[in-house]
């Protein structure tokens, strides 16, 4: 009898722990380092991230055909801003979906011509997929991914109705009016408190009929345009100093010639297009910034991009075809759950 009583008492002592385990908080999320230097390029399964950011560029110069920096006329200024919401979701151990929703505010002034044009409107959204090709299972961290991105044309592409002539427009064009498809590879390698990231991508830019291009010879009115394809290579060096990750690097972009013309008959509508001489070129930008790891779920990121090399691409002020000469400063707050 005594042995039975001791056995039952033993079961009673174990049963609360067993019952409590069934009600403990569980999660499917992968581990995520609180330090930027140790994080892979993929956010990880089960994590959802929202990034709210603002970018601003204030230009008072432009590139010449030979790549020289030339000042605008006195009193002239071009301000271009991007307000963005970035979303990342780790839906699988090796897979991540991402979306970007943007708006733009632009302001053009010229005191001598009494120009004062400002506009706020929707930007072109992006969405895509990242897939992890390799990740080391032990520190130091190594991460290699492939990714694809699609940009949909959604922003304003009409400069006005030309009632007062082609030189009098009432709106700023905020899009190419054509879709882009990007494919790329990126790799990140940690070495102690530092990490090196390399990223190479090819951007295929589709053709489309747009409102800002007017064809008059065949009376089609709306012309067809194909922005030049891009090859983009980025390099970045990161150094973790406590909760702050400092980074610096460069981006090189090679741009093919832009094609314009009228739509042809048949299956291939771009057959009648011709290259715009001088619309291609190479641009180099220097990048620097800092990431403040406030908590595992909250980061603040400050960035600066400074143009080093560029040239006149003939399609100002469409920033996606003709990036304006000017420093770009940005700030982003990221929240993860």
Question: Explain this structure to me?
Answer:
With 337 residues, the protein is mainly beta. The protein has one domain (30-336): Porin. The protein has one helix at 2-21, and strands spanning 48-59, 61-63, 69-71, 76-89, 95-110, 115-122, 126-135, 142-151, 180-191, 194-205, 208-215, 221-226, 230-241, 244-255, 259-261, 274-275, 281-295, 298-309, 328-336. The strands form three sheets. It has a twelve-stranded antiparallel β-barrel with strand order 1-4-5-7-8-9-10-13-14-17-18-19. It has a four-stranded antiparallel β-sheet with strand order 11-12-15-16, with no helix packed on it. Strands 2-3 form a two-stranded antiparallel sheet. 24% of the residues are buried.
Rg, alpha carbons: 26 Å
Query: Could you say which structural class the secondary elements and strand pairing correspond to?
Result: mainly beta
Return residue spans where pLDDT drops below 50 for at least 5 consecutive residues.
1-26
Helix content: under 10%
**What string gives the helices and strands in order?**
HEEEEEEEEEEEEEEEEEEE
The overall number of domains is: 1
| Largest sheet strand order | 1-4-5-7-8-9-10-13-14-17-18-19
Mean pLDDT: 89
Instruction: Provide the β-strand percentage band.
Output: over 45%
Largest sheet: 12 strands, antiparallel, barrel
Q: What is the second-level CATH architecture?
A: Beta Barrel
CATH superfamily: monomeric porin ompg
């Amino acid at each position: 009898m005594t042995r039975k009583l001791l056995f039952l008492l033993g079961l009673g002592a174990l049963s609360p722990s067993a019952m409590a385990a069934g009600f403990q908080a569980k999660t499917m999320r992968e581990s995520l380092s609180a330090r930027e230097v140790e994080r892979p390029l993929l956010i990880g399964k089960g994590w959802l991230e929202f990034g709210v950011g603002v970018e601003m560029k204030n230009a008072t110069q432009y590139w010449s055909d030979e790549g020289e920096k030339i000042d605008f006329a006195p009193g002239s200024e071009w301000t271009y801003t991007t307000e963005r919401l970035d979303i990342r979701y780790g839906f699988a151990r090796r897979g991540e979906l991402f979306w970007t929703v943007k708006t733009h505010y632009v302001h053009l002034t010229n005191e001598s011509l009494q120009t004062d044009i400002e506009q706020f409107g929707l930007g072109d959204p992006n969405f895509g997929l990242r897939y992890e090709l390799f990740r080391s299972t032990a520190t130091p961290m190594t991460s290699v991914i492939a990714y694809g991105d699609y940009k949909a044309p959604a922003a304003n592409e009409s400069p006005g109705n030309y009632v007062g002539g082609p030189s009098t427009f009432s709106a700023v064009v905020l899009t190419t009016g054509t879709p882009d498809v990007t494919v790329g590879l990126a790799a990140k390698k940690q070495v102690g408190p530092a990490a090196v990231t390399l990223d190479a991508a090819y951007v295929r830019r589709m053709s489309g009929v747009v409102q800002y291009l007017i064809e008059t010879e065949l009376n089609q009115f709306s012309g067809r345009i194909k922005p030049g394809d891009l090859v983009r290579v980025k390099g970045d060096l990161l150094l973790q100093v406590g909760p702050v990750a400092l980074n610096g690097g460069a981006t090189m972009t090679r741009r093919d010639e832009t094609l314009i013309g009228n739509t042809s008959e048949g299956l291939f509508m771009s057959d009648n297009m011709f290259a715009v001489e001088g619309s291609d070129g190479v641009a180099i930008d220097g990048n620097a910034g800092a990431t403040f790891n406030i908590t595992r779920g909250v980061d603040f990121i400050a960035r600066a991009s400074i143009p080093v090399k560029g040239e006149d691409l003939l399609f100002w002020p469409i920033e996606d075809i003709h990036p304006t000469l000017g420093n770009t400063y940005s700030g982003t707050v990221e929240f993860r759950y």
